[in-house]
Specification:
Number of strands: 9
CATH class of the largest domain: Mainly Beta
Strand content: 15-25%
Helix content: 10-25%
Strand order of the largest sheet: 1-9-8
Number of helices: 3
Mean pLDDT: 86
Oligomer: single chain
Largest sheet: 3 strands, antiparallel
Low-confidence stretches: none
Length: 198
């Protein structure tokens, strides 16, 4: 005891005990709070690569899968469709896909794909983010007699060919974006992982 009648050792013990209890209480409150900042399993899966089976995709058909909340279109093209692509260069804003952000380097070619038969595109118009319609050459449409097939954005009239290249004189400034992807086999594509990555 000191001259005021206080027991210093007891005071130190009570201070230490209060500090320990306070720290434990803070941990119990803090751990769930910090854990809530981590992405959920669903959010983590949304960013994961998506494996797509294209074995049943017929010529001219388009299939849609979701990757990172975006529609990914896979269109199977035949030789006639690929030949039509070559005839459109003079009508396109960027026929050689010069804007690097539009596609991975391994798809910067006339058909904008790893395998010419399959187009893999993000189905979002590069103007204001609408989702264009897939309009085949043989579909009923009012896009003109020289329409070779492709994508038409109903929001503001942007047009893209079957390689996702944008036509001139439309609101969309650039071609449709191609996501990173690679082939796991002749019938499986992995969207979200670049060709050459593990």
């Amino acid at each position: 005891m000191n001259k005021d009648g206080a027991n210093l050792s007891r005071r130190r013990f009570l201070t230490a005990a209060t500090t320990v209890v306070g720290a434990v209480g803070t941990a119990f409150v803090g751990v769930p709070f910090i854990a809530s900042m981590q992405p959920s399993a669903k959010a983590q899966a949304a960013g994961s690569a998506v494996e797509v089976d294209i074995s049943k995709l017929e010529v001219g058909q388009r299939m849609t899968v979701e990757w990172r909340g975006k529609p990914i279109w896979i269109v199977r093209r035949d030789d006639a469709m690929l030949a039509d692509l070559k005839t459109l260069d003079v009508k396109l804003r960027d026929p050689a896909s010069q804007v690097a952000e539009q596609q991975p380097a391994y798809t910067q070619n006339p058909h904008r794909s790893i395998k010419a038969e399959y187009a893999v595109l993000i189905g979002i118009c590069t103007h204001l983010g609408c989702s264009p319609s897939y309009v085949q050459k043989t579909d009923t449409h009012n896009l003109g007699n020289d329409w070779k097939g492709g994508f038409f954005c109903p929001c503001h009239g942007s047009r893209f060919d079957l390689a996702g290249r944008v036509f001139q004189s439309v609101p969309a400034p650039t071609n449709l974006v191609i996501p990173p992807h690679k082939y796991l086999s002749d019938t499986k594509i992995l969207v979200g992982v670049d060709q050459g990555e593990a």
